[in-house]
Write a structure and sequence with these properties.
Layout: H1 5-15, E1 20-24, H2 31-44, E2 46-51, H3 56-70, E3 73-78, E4 81-85
Parallel strand pairs: 1-2
Antiparallel strand pairs: 2-4, 3-4
Length: 102
C-alpha cells in the first residue's frame, strides 16, 4: 500500500495533532499491544505509537513487526514515536482521525 508523497504529507499534518494511544515497552510486541493497536487502528485509522526503547535498531524492528502484524503502514517515525495508518473498510466519522475535523 505505497502512498504518494503528497498523501503522506497530508497524513503527517493530521498526525501532528495526535497523541500516542499505544505504548510499546522493553517487553516488545505482546498480545495486549497487538490487540490495543488493532482496536485503535479500527477506530481511528491513523494513530501514534510510542516506543519506550533506547536501542534504535530494536525500535526499527519492533515498528516493522507491529505494522506487519497489524497490516498497517508506517507513515513517519520521529524519535520514539511512529505514526501508522490502516484505512478502515467502513470508517466511523465520529472516531476516524482522517474524517473528523480538528
Amino acid at each position: 500500500m505505497a502512498l504518494k508523497a503528497e498523501k503522506k504529507r497530508e497524513l503527517r499534518a493530521i498526525g501532528h495533532k495526535l497523541k500516542p494511544v499505544v505504548i510499546v515497552s522493553e517487553n516488545g510486541i505482546t498480545e495486549g499491544v497487538i490487540e490495543e493497536t488493532l482496536r485503535a487502528l479500527g477506530d481511528h485509522e491513523l494513530i501514534k505509537v510510542k516506543f519506550a526503547i533506547t536501542d534504535r535498531e530494536a525500535k526499527k524492528q519492533l515498528i516493522n513487526e507491529l505494522c506487519t502484524t497489524c497490516g498497517a503502514e508506517t507513515i513517519q517515525t520521529i524519535g520514539k514515536i511512529a505514526l501508522i495508518l490502516k484505512p478502515a473498510k467502513e470508517p466511523n466519522p465520529k472516531l476516524s482521525n482522517l474524517l473528523r475535523p480538528f
